[in-house]
Amino acid sequence: MKLTRKRLAHIVFESDDAASKRFDVVLLIAILGSVTITVLDSVRKLHDAYGTIFYMMEWAFTILFTMEYILRVWLSRRTTGYVLSFYGLVDLLAILPTYISLVVANSHFLAVVRALRFLRVLRVLKLGRYMREAQMLTEALHNSRMKIQIFLGSVITIILVMGTVMFFIEGPESGFTSIPMAMYWAIVTLTTVGYGDISPMTPLGQFMASLIMLLGYAIIAVPTGIVTSEINAAKNKKRNSDDQRTCHTCHAGNHDEDAYHCKYCGTRL
Amino acid sequence: MKLTRKRLAHIVFESDDAASKRFDVVLLIAILGSVTITVLDSVRKLHDAYGTIFYMMEWAFTILFTMEYILRVWLSRRTTGYVLSFYGLVDLLAILPTYISLVVANSHFLAVVRALRFLRVLRVLKLGRYMREAQMLTEALHNSRMKIQIFLGSVITIILVMGTVMFFIEGPESGFTSIPMAMYWAIVTLTTVGYGDISPMTPLGQFMASLIMLLGYAIIAVPTGIVTSEINAAKNKKRNSDDQRTCHTCHAGNHDEDAYHCKYCGTRL
Amino acid sequence: MKLTRKRLAHIVFESDDAASKRFDVVLLIAILGSVTITVLDSVRKLHDAYGTIFYMMEWAFTILFTMEYILRVWLSRRTTGYVLSFYGLVDLLAILPTYISLVVANSHFLAVVRALRFLRVLRVLKLGRYMREAQMLTEALHNSRMKIQIFLGSVITIILVMGTVMFFIEGPESGFTSIPMAMYWAIVTLTTVGYGDISPMTPLGQFMASLIMLLGYAIIAVPTGIVTSEINAAKNKKRNSDDQRTCHTCHAGNHDEDAYHCKYCGTRL
Amino acid sequence: MKLTRKRLAHIVFESDDAASKRFDVVLLIAILGSVTITVLDSVRKLHDAYGTIFYMMEWAFTILFTMEYILRVWLSRRTTGYVLSFYGLVDLLAILPTYISLVVANSHFLAVVRALRFLRVLRVLKLGRYMREAQMLTEALHNSRMKIQIFLGSVITIILVMGTVMFFIEGPESGFTSIPMAMYWAIVTLTTVGYGDISPMTPLGQFMASLIMLLGYAIIAVPTGIVTSEINAAKNKKRNSDDQRTCHTCHAGNHDEDAYHCKYCGTRL
């Protein structure tokens, strides 16, 4: 088969035949490999021992991703559309740091260069392209957006009021040095994380802390209830759209599973 | 448009045209701003650097809220009704501390003044006016009130009994200096917060602690189940009240909103 | 009204008129009061300051509960039935320790006496008599008993295997001194309590710990799902039994809310 | 009854008469006993005091399980099928370590021998044979496999990105010595375990940590929602498959098991 531009575009953007699937698998491995290297390189011991190998592999991955980026820019129907899309920006951010580190290495902006290097980890977001089944989940989350906002609003109010109260009760001696610090403690407590780096010392403070803990323990039920209810709704909707029967008279679809007659014109299905 | 008293009342109490919406937005920003300043002012570094600016902005917000309070008192149909309502009291508590700090500053009651200053954070409760969509959530919580009370009663009994048992097993050496302290530990453990400031040292104590943890891990399912079930019920109620039609022939209900014929027997609804 | 034995039994065992309700309220306050005193007496400072008052009040409550116990034994139809019932034993355990402490005080078994004193806290279980609305909750828990057992079995297996693996990986240096201690750590981690008194130090141990945490985070969904599903089922059942309609022909009850005809004989309801 | 091979196979593989049930109970006790001994033997004090008894009991259990293994190999219809099955491998791994420790004891591979000894704990997996009621639970988990994978994928992405960000913000001074270490911290925080061995020190780091905590607190709702929804579905499926009857007149389904007439139109089912 000749490698025409149309054929190439099919390989890059689709995944329904052998060649396009192989392209996807190679990219997937490259993404996982490059992220793994960035992570391992941050461990001092491994950096000291294998730093040169990591550096060379990083360049290999960067060249591969650069080629992929050029291909996508060249092959996409609306070039600016791709470049400015979410994945277009992620693809660019995944290759830029390596090139910039080359240019800036001679200057003194070493801290900035270090920071940029870790942007490479964002390559993991490119995996999002391969998660098509996530639709129902994101739909459920999207539908419960309003309720989750109200819930978060209430939680933040509780944290603000409780943080202020605890700052006043405990004071700087117990580590509650300011309201923001006391709010940090309130979040650590309400979400039941409980580091223990700051914890109340006075009996009254411990009583208030107990209230926050029981509150946090009880209100976790709210987001759970919201999401469960939405997932149920999304499921029922999906089940209905799975019913493929079409009415012979009025051609209407979307019938319930238990329907015997068309709900629009009354014809037997 | 002339600014009559009726027009002003509309702007202050409603939010359905440009002027009243602008009024709401200005107030919202002022509330968030004044709360932010109170929070930031509690950080010693920021207080030392920007204390004067914070003080001036605090007065600006206080004057603004005072004007809002006077407007609301003047414009509301039943003045005492507003003054004694929840939001009336919050509005008053949000401006009082600044004025009191002015009066009391010359005296020696500095600790009291400090405490009063943080009452300003309560202004955040004024945001509640803008959260109208919370109705279904609060209804679900209200319906499961009885069950949540029983659940909290059981949790408090577990905490009391377990606290007493652990106080006897561990004793003051491990930090379980009294039953209230042991109950505080039991709350920290049952709610899975786990600060680690007090933790059992003896094998028997660690065994009892394991039981409490597994119990806390299992019974969190109860409030979650209650709330989920209530949210489902609130949802079904809403959906059912959306369509009350019943088939005349087979008496089947539960028809879709867009149905013209019964889906079971085909009769015209 | 003359205080016959029958009238007294009504006051003690029922709660449907003024006198019996007053009896319940007095007992409720006495239970809460006596438990509060036991708890407060365990705080050294309060014991030193108010020890004598606590001692006197303790005796007052004990005499009151002794009178209640004698009344219940005398008035109950089947005396042995009450004495050996759950609440009969709780009532006895609530008064015995005070008397025993009197007898044993002269001997050297001080530690035993101390332990017995805290048995008084069990009086809180007497409150169970007043929690009649708990039925639906306990029914839901009872129905999901089997599934909760399987869930706990799986959790204990995970804890045993993970504890053994971590004991081998980490060893005594990190605090994993034995398999039971490592299992204690596994429980602390899986239930997301996380004291931090023992935590893995080696990279492999931290990797295994991460797996346990994510597992614990994911499988908490299982008991929640079980209980939610049971509460829904209990609710539907209750709703059905709320339908009070009875068939005129066959006198059958228990009809669904949406039923138009008796499901047993077909008569119009 | 003569102990033929067929009879023996019945006793070993089934559990529907007295003899086969007795065989199961003996094995169950032996499994629990041998696991308990391995666990207790890991406690130094108990090992020093009862090491010899543990050693002898361990050999008794090993001989018993060896006999069971030989029986199962001999009696199973397809010998290789059993040997290579999951439980076949567990049965072998449960007896091998004791024999190997005998052979290797004379050599210097003591560390390996110690490790192998703890493989005995895997015997607990043999209990899985007796958990037949777990079917509905595992089915629900199996059905939500895809969604749980997507959820775990998202969680791992959050952990990777947040770990990298925190490594850059906090640096080695606060214990974030490398990206893997920062990812370990992110897992400890997101799952609300919160050991406190590593915790953010800078204000920006504490702000980012607060975001992760609130995120972890909110997204635990997702697996819970998924599993609850699947358990409900499994339950409805079971209930519906219990009654497949449809009314001949109005085609309504969903009849109660004890119904004789359609509850909507009264027709005989």
TrEMBL record, chains A, B, C, D:
Alphabetized Gene3D superfamilies for the sequence: 1.10.287.70, Voltage-gated potassium channels. Chain C (1.20.120.350)
Record field: transmembrane: 21-40, 52-71, 83-102, 148-169, 175-195, 207-227
UniProt topology in membrane: Multi-pass membrane protein
Domain Ion transport, first and last residues per copy: 21-238
SUPFAM superfamilies to which the protein is assigned, alphabetical: Voltage-gated potassium channels (SSF81324)
One Pfam family from the record: Ion_trans
Keywords from the named record: Ion channel, Ion transport, Membrane, Potassium, Potassium channel, Potassium transport, Transmembrane, Transmembrane helix, Transport, Voltage-gated channel
Domain of life: Bacteria
Subcellular location: Membrane
Keyword Membrane: yes
Protein name in the entry: Ion transporter
